[in-house]
Amino acid sequence: MTNLKIFYRVELVFTSPLHLGKGSQGDYLGASEIIHDGSGQYVLPGTSIAGVFFATMEKCVVWKSFNTNDLELWKQNVTTQPSGKDDDSQASRIIFRTATLNPVELRVRDKVKICRKTKTAEENAKFSLWEIDPGRVKLLIEIDNVSRSNHLEQNEFSKLEEWVESVFYSWKQEGVFLGGHTGTGNGQARLVKVERFKLDANNFNEYLQSSYHDLLNKDALWSEFTPASSGSHRGRFLKHYLCTVKTGLHNPILVKGGSSYQSIANPETDVAFISRKGSPFIPGSSFRGALSSIMDKYKKQEWKTLLGQPKTVGKNSEQGGCIIFTDLYLDKQASPDMKLLQIEHHSEDQFSRAVYGSGKFTEERLFNAVFRGEIMVLDCDTARKANIDCLFGFLKQACDYGLIALGSGGCHPEITLEEKK
Question: Which domains does the chain have, with CATH numbers?
Fold first, then answer.
């Protein structure tokens, strides 16, 4: 019997905060707001899930090598391209429901672009946005064989199943990034569980009496299964690097948290180290900025396109980046002697040596700490692959010689890059 629908209940665990822009700024701190529904609940729109899902499918399913029948099935039922001269395209048979989010934490995150010459924020380059930590999220995804007048045969429907489940396999093995600023680690999640419910003539009445919210919560309907790799599956990432940052006694680091962050050790600190859930971390955006800076310093601007940045200041990038930087988290076991200490600074008048009225402040630097994160390189064209090998060879040398400045004040911590096989 041909399946009428197949539902998937997909559970994701977010390992970094998520920003889903509403397109407006709130009165509080002027930060970009997060989208919510009419009841005020934060949501992950089905359209956002669909965009990431299809982008993953196009990467991990080798559809360009399909035979004629599979390619036609792909065009008409996945990407919904019209098959004739007229625009006879229809909606994709893969449907994504909007998910409600119950955030564990809601905070403001600063983003800033630094001018290399003055070491200050460029004009209009500093902004803030709200981020939420949604924890565990359940998504409802379905393959529909009912709504259209033409029904798929069993072998065609099975092909759609295979392609959909290859995405789940990718999300489980490689993770997924959702929302805005994903190139710097935002919205990183990993699939931890997939359950399936097959709709047929025997349980159709029960389906008609339920909304999709009911289906999501009816545990008795679902059976767990493990997505497996198919013969046409390939990985989305070309390389993975483990990144370790060590600070010691003589090279303490400061990554500013902005006005919305308070020190976890000294509440009276003027400039506090950025933290999340009571633990310091180094944002992926900070590490990405440090690598961009060293490319400028040593005249390697041609590699900046790999980060999605233009080669020349003032011009727009011709193509998106293919390198993702996750946040670097504190390794507490490797940091038993970690200390967050206040350092006092002040600005003096160069003639009288008097301290300016507002020129005295304290900043918080971190001693004896170890951070760990990842750098992931998306699969890309042959020319960019050659540049990636050259780039990481250059970066490893820069790490060996301590040339990479990170954080406020140009700290030069010990940095190691190790490729994961």
Answer: 5-224 (no CATH), 237-420 (3.30.70)
